[in-house]
């Protein structure tokens, strides 16, 4: 049974958080205890109740159990870029400890990454190195816009080359004015060896909507191997 998977994107701002919310809600609709986990959150803000990241808060609100913010995101950073921030040496251990905590409390954990697949978490280590270490199946979010076909195929190739299962991909229509939408979907789908799990239409305030209907969980057949 699939217990956890990792959501990455073709780039930043392609809709990873919205897709993660949709996945969590779809799992909850099937009666599962589904938890969102964002180990590292960049671009956070200092607020009255501490450092907060809006994407992590969305995952907190989208989970079946509302865990404390610090459990959802053990490392919230003010910088937009990960590798220029003050990353502790034991960052992978921190991330793994948080994941294990989540796995103990839920039926399934959706882990949201930062930016694209080959994001640097330190000047010489990739975020994807941790995903490989944990052997987590990957779901790729493709923001449907100009140039996304190449980005999608390159990202899928990199994930597979790294030896991880590509469990599926999700199309997120971030540009409602893009011509040839269906042709773009077909071009990606015909060249990625993974199922299209869903298409997210362009929606204002998607972080507060019910997104479950846009995801087909029946296409997920990958098992986690520990």
Automatic annotation (TrEMBL):
InterPro entries referenced in this protein's UniProt entry, alphabetically: DTB_synth_BioD (IPR004472), P-loop_NTPase (IPR027417)
NCBIfam families: bioD
Keywords for this protein: ATP-binding, Biotin biosynthesis, Cytoplasm, Ligase, Magnesium, Metal-binding, Nucleotide-binding
Reaction(s) catalysed (UniProt annotation): (7R,8S)-7,8-diammoniononanoate + CO2 + ATP = (4R,5S)-dethiobiotin + ADP + phosphate + 3 H(+)
UniProt-annotated binding residues for ATP: 55, 172-173, 201-203
Gene3D superfamilies found in the cross-reference section: P-loop containing nucleotide triphosphate hydrolases (3.40.50.300)
Family, similarity comment: Belongs to the dethiobiotin synthetase family.
Compartment(s) where it occurs, according to its Swiss-Prot or TrEMBL record: Cytoplasm
Pathways involved: Cofactor biosynthesis; biotin biosynthesis; biotin from 7,8-diaminononanoate: step 1/2
Record's keyword annotation contains Transferase: no
Class of this enzyme: ligase
Binding site for Mg(2+): 17, 55, 112
Thylakoid is among the record's keywords: no
Source organism, top-level taxon: Bacteria
Cofactor: Mg(2+)
Subunit and partners: Homodimer.
UniProt-annotated binding residues for substrate: 42
Location of the active site: 38
Known role: Catalyzes a mechanistically unusual reaction, the ATP-dependent insertion of CO2 between the N7 and N8 nitrogen atoms of 7,8-diaminopelargonic acid (DAPA, also called 7,8-diammoniononanoate) to form a ureido ring.
Protein name per UniProt: ATP-dependent dethiobiotin synthetase BioD
EC number: 6.3.3.3
